[in-house]
Amino acid sequence: MLNGIWLSFFLAAFAAALWQWLGMGDAEVFSRLVASLFDMARLSVEIILVLVGTMTLWLGFLAIAEKAGLIRVLARALDPLFRHLMPEVPSGHPALGHISMNFAANILGLDNAATPIGIKAMHSLQSLNPSPNTASNAQILFLVLNSSSLTLLPVTIFMYRAQQGAAEPTAVFLPILLATTASSLVGLLSVAFMQRLKLWHPVVLAYLLAGAAALGLLLATLAGMSAQALAATSSLVGNLTLFGIVIAFLAIGALRKVNVYDTFIEGAKEGFSFTISLLPYLVAMLVAVGALRASGVLDGALDGVRWLVEGLGWDTRFIDALPTAFIKPLSGSGARAMMIETMDTFGVDSFPALLAATFQGSTETTFYVIAVYFGAVGITRIRHGLGCALLADLAGMLTAIAVCYWFFA
Question: pLDDT tens, 122-137?
Fold first, then answer.
């Protein structure tokens, strides 16, 4: 699928450039296209240079957390919830431990660890599946919650904003938290409706009510604040949470006799190699998106949407961030390229760039998750999995727009 998307970007850009040359007499369009290719390639390298340091730093700290047993603690905390949401999985089955560890890693933003653990979880669930080619209820719930992006700390979004020169890289912390909460909740409710899950079970209610109470307290605290105060609060909470987690990792690691320095170095080495491996993908998608922008295709499509929105009498500032939202279910690298290109075009602290960053952090790459997790166990019939996942994506996108108008308009 990604192959077709990437190729279509270049073909659409070429077709638009031919029209501008032959139909409109714009002979400079091809020079703009070529210049865009080199500009985006250079931007990719600049981004990677910053990401090498920041990703190395973060994976070093996460290695300490893993060796200190914090991931296992989070797994034990989530285990009772999943035992009731997946009644066909026997209590104590290895799948529940894998699922809990996967979500614990996701919550901490440990993407490189979450994916292999998630594949293990899917294999464990497959061992209980009476129809190997068809997704079970437990597998669908696991996939939808993964695709709805249960992330507490979107560190990579902060890193990209920092690389682009944001005054407060963590200003989008609370908007992303609210949007990803909405997408995860809608994903859970949609699957519960399709599978007749008993969400009123005392254990499930305890988790849901605790989450609702925390979210309600947050919203009550934020209610009545001005846009400037909300942005400042989001930045403060984001920075405090990020540094507080780092200190917690170090303190608990030291208390549990972990050699925090050596462990940090081991994790940091993984961060370096992992970040360098992203360069080809980042170059590929950024040059494709840059070609779309330089050829006028992207602006033309957005102008069409803008015309419709203006006809309805709505504010149009959110439209320039929509490419990130539209691409995110299809391609994580493509959406990341769209987000970075929006930052580069409009300014990293502009409303479209802030909204694009919130889009990027509030949902997951749905089709990629389906392909990897279901493909790993040979499932071809996904039943209601895709519909519920896309509904969660839509909820996250709509919430992101509403929250960003609240925080940044």
Answer: 888 999 999 999 999 9
48: nearest Cα among 373, 354, 273, 364: 273
State the sign of the Cα–Cα–Cα–Cα dihedral 298, 301, 304, 305. negative
304 touches 25 (CB < 8 A): no
Q: Which of 92, 70, 73, 74 is nearest to 83 (CA)?
A: 92
Contact 289, 338 (CB under 8 A): yes
The CA distance from 218 to 177, in Å, is 11
**For residue 193, what are its two tokens?**
């409706």
| Sign of the C-alpha dihedral computed for residues 299, 300, 306 and 310 taken in this order | positive
Which residues contact residue 37 at a Cβ distance below 8 angstroms, ignoring those fewer than 6 apart?
A: 287, 290, 291
Q: Residue 34 and residue 11: Cα distance in Å, rounded?
A: 14
The C-alpha angle 12, 365, 100, rounded to 5 degrees, equals 175
| Structure-block tokens of residue 163 | 């690389």
Cβ atoms < 10 Å from Cβ of 299: 16
Backbone CA torsion sign across 395, 401, 404, 405: negative
Q: Which residues pair with 134 in a beta bridge?
A: 381
- Under 8 Å between Cβ of 335 and 328: yes
C-alpha to C-alpha distance for 200 and 202, rounded to whole angstroms? 6
Angle at the Cα of 183 (from 364 to 89), degrees rounded to 5?
Answer: 80
Beta bridge partners of 381: 134
Q: Within 13 Å and on the Cβ side, how many CA atoms surround 58? A: 21
> Are 353 and 342 spatial neighbours (Cβ–Cβ below 8 Å)?
yes
At 62 the three-state DSSP class reads: helix
CA angle 63, 67, 73 (to 5 degrees): 110
- Residue 330: phi, psi to the nearest 5? -95, -40
pLDDT digits (tens, 9 = 90+) for 198-230: 888 898 899 888 878 887 787 677 666 665 676
The whole-angstrom separation of Cα 387 and Cα 406 is: 29
The tokens describing 144, both together, are 């939808």
3-class state of residue 134 by DSSP? strand
Structure tokens at 302: 């957005």
Q: Is the pTM of this model over 0.85?
A: no
